[in-house]
Amino acid sequence: xKINVKHSHGSYSVFVFEDQLAQHLKKSKLLKTKNLFVVxxxxxxxxxxxxxxxxxxxxSSILNVYKFSAKEKNKSHTELIKILKSMFDNRCRRDTLxxxxxxxxxxxxxxxxASIFMRGIDYINIPTxxxxxxxxxxxxxxxINFNSGKNLVGTFYQPKAVFTDISFLYTxxxxxxxxxxxxxxxxxxxxxxxxxxxxxRSFNIIINKNYNNFIKIxxxxxxxxxxxxxxxxxxxxxxxxxxxxxHTFAHGIESASDHKIKHGEAVxxxxxxxxxxxxxxxxxxxxxxxxxxxDIQPAVVPFKKYYKLINPEIVFKSMLGDKKNNSSGISLxxxxxxxxxxxxxxxxxxxxxxxLIDMKVxxxxxxxxxxxxTVEK
Length: 377
Ligand SMILES: NC(=O)c1ccc[n+]([C@@H]2O[C@H](COP(=O)([O-])OP(=O)(O)OC[C@H]3O[C@@H](n4cnc5c(N)ncnc54)[C@H](O)[C@@H]3O)[C@@H](O)[C@H]2O)c1
What we know:
The chain is of the alpha/beta class. It has 13 helices and 11 strands.
């Protein structure tokens, strides 16, 4: 599967496949006679480097392999400087190709390094988590955390290509797969009406690791994201902002928990809170609210154990520093009865705290029963 993503300076392809990295790299000719600077997640290095080395080293030479410990606290200016320093120490030049291999944390920081090293060098992305495959590897947002705020410093910088090999997911810890599910749940709200059932079925497919169906699910997510980012590359006109559904809450929840709650998990809590907030604002009816909660309930089960870490007051404080905010205050992304995502919705403290409490109560009370047999073929 190949999906083309257009941007203001050209386009790039997202290749989605299973266990054919070498063939796809060769076919793309992007590595031919290139010097490579590899930034790789240190866990992925331990599990996959031997094979990756063979795949990368065929037509190019590797200047250095920078092993990066993928933690939110390392998505920092200190680590960014270390990567840049290593690029200089290893004699990277403007024609060096940076190869980023890992999840969203590795992708965000290494793409940022590529975007500012000598005013920008080419890079390719090989995402290895479900979250980075369905979301962060597409769209050209790079970044680091700053002053305990999420992604507050960054650039827009597009890759030369994205190589998505779903066989990396076989070694992904259970919790990380479920975190990726958080962004798939988000797509179920953004997707056109006719695809909603497909997405609702995909939740159990992912939970049950039915990998045969992953390429189809991933391709649908990437197509939705690429269409939105093509129309609004730098999140100016608005269409791209729908991708932030649940995310103002999510970033607050994630930061306030000191990242004990992972990004995709926080996105799920953020989406549920957005639904409650939309209900409080009378944008949706109680019936619509509970219909939607029921649709995502099977996927919420794995996250139940983390809701206790959420303290609404602290989350609210953390939300005050979100980069989506404008001069009129906290900017939320909500939903209305016609399934339209509403961006730039001005949020108030009372509604935010109450909706966070509603969310916690619902997550606690939701029976969350689902059975493998309910997976529809
Ligand atoms: N740029 C964007 O548009 C965008 C969009 C969404 C999220 N993000 C960012 O993405 C980040 C989250 O990314 P993530 O969920 O991929 O987390 P991550 O990069 O931290 O990876 C999760 C964990 O899985 C391990 N891992 C990665 N691949 C593995 C594999 N194949 N096998 C075994 N272990 C593996 C990592 O070592 C890490 O411990 C957040 O910082 C978020 O802000 C960015």
